[in-house]
Write a structure and sequence with these properties.
By secondary structure, the protein is mainly alpha-helical. The chain has a domain at 80-332. 69% of the residues lie in helices and 2% in strands. The termini are far apart.
Amino acid sequence: MPSPIPLVAGPLAFLALRLLSPGGLDGPQATVLGVGAWMAIWWISECLPLAVTALLPIALFPALGATTAREATAPFANEVVFLYLGGFLLAEALQHWRAHERMAFGVILRVGTDSRRLVLGIMLATAFISMWISNTATAAMMYPIALAIGARFGDDAAARSQQVALLLGVAFAASIGGMATLIGTPPNLILAGAARELICVNLDFFSFLKFGLPIAAILLPVCWVLLVHVFHRERVVLGADGVAALRQQQADLGPMSSGERRVFGVFVAMALGWFFREPKVIGAVTVFGLTDVVPGLTDAGVAIIGGIALFVLPGRSMSHAAARPLLTWREARAIPWDVLLLFGGGLSLAAAMESSGLATMIGQWMSGLEGLPLPVVLLGVAVVTVIVSELASNAATASMGMPIAVSLAAALGQPPLLLMLTIGLAASVGYALPMATPPNAIVFGSGVLSVRQMARAGLALDLIAIGVVVGVLWTLF
């Protein structure tokens, strides 16, 4: 049953803000602010599924005269929603053909038998896979492998400490890897959709990669150092039996089937399509872009072309001689459709804040921050975002933060995309608590580590990540 307190608190907050109209807001602006508060309470408390809360703009904005039904529903068909849909379909196909497991074993078995190197290996594999499929799916796939490796360490205190490091490495690397690419995690796509809706900026796959990849590339080794050289300094060497067990699991996968090879082919083609969609100017050299030939091609178009190809191309597994599509609709129905609704709800709220003039009013309220140095503002925004993200869904945090970023940028006279990037990337920083991210919850559910162990390493990584996000954006933007 839903918790009754936040269930009632949301509508009450809406009524209070609608009736009081703080700061001289007019009717539609007060309505949008009230609905935003209602959604924030339900999102943070998760008293109802996040996707259900995301439907409130469709139900309330037209009925209360804040927007038309067309304006409320249009963001649910934003092209970013379809970009992530294509990514979900690819992830489902990779998992069906067990291609993701082959990638993971390929990394782990190349790094050696020392526990510190194994933590690094499993983190590299997790982060790389998480760049392309959901953080949750990556953590769910990798943490049993981490448990299996950790079980080979033994049963003394040093072995148990290294087991904790392995599991925390999976959780943290899944979130860090997702920060690297546009499709890696929901906040990145919410950021891209809001940039297109609110400030008419097309943040494509390559443009985001310039910011996300350096942040992930810095955070991943820093995270490894924290885990194995600061908080879990013990060292264990995996014996020959442990290595043999891993090699046996890899051997059990058998040779690559035609289906697995073709899924890899679609995966590579989609990645290349996103990377080379637009021409790249590197000094005096211009690299060919697909839009030179197909001007209307978008990142969402690449994703959907790849998704459709999965249903068209046939493949065979080693255990079945009959060919079948690389992906069937039965399997596709398992993708997280609720996340797509969550995107739409956040974008609908952001669009209403902009069209009603509420975003402009918030910007005027924030004009008092104008005298502060920009790095101080960015650090403050990042800290607040991380605190909220530790307690609420990172996707919901990003959705709530995007229109505020635009308003704050207007008050400061700064590029809105800089503050939107700060909030979007900081929303993925939540390492201290089990409920902060699905990867944290997944590894905590193993029963191997405590809240204290996660919080001790996670808080340190939170603080470092805030500095890295702000520092990279301040340097590269």
